[in-house]
Amino acid sequence: MSQGHTRMLLNGNHAVAHGVKLARPMVVPVYPITPQTPIVEKISEFQLQGVMDADLMTMESEHSAMAACITASLTGVRVFTATASQGLMLMHEMLHYASGAQTPIVMCNVNRTIGSPWGFWPDQTDSLAQRDTGWIQYYCESAQESLDTILQAYWVAEKVLLPAMVMHEAFYVSHALETVDVPDQEIADTYLPPFSPYHRLDPEIGASWGNVVNQDMFYRHRQTLGQSMEKAIEVALEADMLWEKLTGRGYGVIEEHRCTDAEIIIATTGSMAGTAREAVDQLRDSGMPVGLLKVKLFRPFPVELVRRALDEIPRVIVLDRNFAPGTGGFLHQELKAALYGLKNGPVIYGYLTGVGGTNVPPDKIAGLVRESMEEEPVNSSVWKG
Amino acid sequence: MAYTIVEEKIFCSGHHACPGCNAALAFRYITNTLGQNTIAVVPPSCGAIISGPQPLSSMRIPVYQTTLEASAASAAGIKRALKAQGKDHINVVAIAGDGGTYDIGFQSLSSAAERNEDIIYICLDNEGYMNTGAQKSSSTPYLAYTTSTPGGKPTAKKNVAEIMAAHRIPYMATATTGYLDDLVYKVRKAKDIKGMRFIVILVPCLDGWGVADHEGAKISRLAVQTGVFPLYEVENGIKYALNYGSQGIPVSNYITRQKRYRHLSSEQIDEIQQVVNADWENFKVKFNA
């Protein structure tokens, strides 16, 4: 697209802030945490400059930030917040409360290691540990993708009435500079209509939320939440197609790169997808039939699309920059579950690599692919530095 | 001092409180005074039970039940969203217990006060976690029995009124169900002020304190008359006004009517009397200044 945008040099966090500005949230409760802070700082600047008309609430904790997001959303306004690592951990209780109330909050979480010990590096365990909180989860690999996904996340969240988390990794994406096409406000406005929920806290309506319920009502609430999740995949595809129509950029909920005729597929999420794409291209150049499966939408997990992508593929290598003690890599677990019962499904290698933010360059990934040829797959994830 | 009580019928009968519940009584006068144009926030507490299980409600206003730590932040989120929509005329009130206020909810309360959020925060103080079976909170008075302090609480009650006044919020007041006219006056006054308003209301818990069903109001009146819980207001952290204070009635009159103090020796009752006397002497200075 040559029209309808401004090309800017932005880091991932500032790209998110631009995406948020375009979405026009009215209330933005925030709390600072490294490496998320540039998002909040940029939004504060926008507000000071008068180019963003949002009420910025400087909260005393992430727990309170999320509490305020939930009530503001329930009162009928679009909201945004951002966090990372321990901040997301502190929000955990409220994350469930948000999805239970079906509030379409959009939040950017910058993936960072969780303590203890302390660390500041890219590692997705923080958000993956929230996978069962009822939030939609997107994993992005570039500043451009993060900006675009913020707007898509609002589109989906408000359609299915679920909160959505947009992830990108600490420093690799959050602080790295890239050229980013920032769409004009008219494009965002065309894409995202004003938020006007049917249910809201208002004395003229008189509806309440959060009261004690009996077992049957709780059961039905959970069922409704599940139905919203089920719808979210289709809606996310629709959101992506519409965005592509307006801006020329689409991502799908999964991406298949050079998967036609592939005999080995590398599956991963987030910034590692970008590195793996390089590795795939290198390996293809050397004649190896390798492809990449990038899982962008992690919740709801696009089971059917993943099964279709990996059916009849002999070998899948899962790269996890995250670790669940006692089970292993999150994507490894999810893929094993998703592919269960597939007649001609692949053998799956689960590699824990980049955990804690260790560097994983394309050569390393190519090496892991070659190593896998010498190894029998095991059921658990394997540490590969 | 006497004030006219004008009630709008917001709080309905048939709620889920115990017979004679003073928290329900406080709820009635708070919500009926604030009126229809109000949204209430209630954390887990007896207040949540009184508000009613879904789909029922004892109140003709929207009630949002939040988590235990988040009353003030939740109320602030509602108010900010209302302002953003040009509906600034709607009152937002958080009604929490002492556990949700003095303890787990204090961080969000203190910060809402620092930001001068435009909300009314009311603490229904029954001096313990009564909804979970009468455990100690930091509001539990010195030597009072709770199920988690069976030998009597070894430390003093946290003085939340002075802590909140020290935030220099526009309005802080103490009230009790023993003086309903005063309670209503304070709620109405708070309603007309902008910014953070805080009222702590002493509400005897009949079960947790071991008080007869019909004695709640009498006990809370004695709390004031003995000097244990003076009723006063503080504007902007500096302007103090006393409404009802000690009438020199011995503290034993208050204590001996409650089972939570029945383990006390006469020396311990004397000790409490000395503390109340000293506190009252120090407190009076604020009004003479």
From TrEMBL, chain A:
Residues 262-365 form the Pyruvate:ferredoxin oxidoreductase core domain. GO terms for biological process: response to oxidative stress. CDD domains: TPP_PYR_PFOR_IOR-alpha_like. Residues 19-236 form the Pyruvate flavodoxin/ferredoxin oxidoreductase pyrimidine binding domain. This is 2-oxoacid:ferredoxin oxidoreductase, alpha subunit. GO terms for molecular function: oxidoreductase activity. Keywords: Oxidoreductase. InterPro entries: PFOR_II, Pyruvate:ferred/Flavod_OxRd, Pyrv_Fd/Flavodoxin_OxRdtase_N, THDP-binding, Transketo_C/PFOR_II. It comes from the Bacteria.
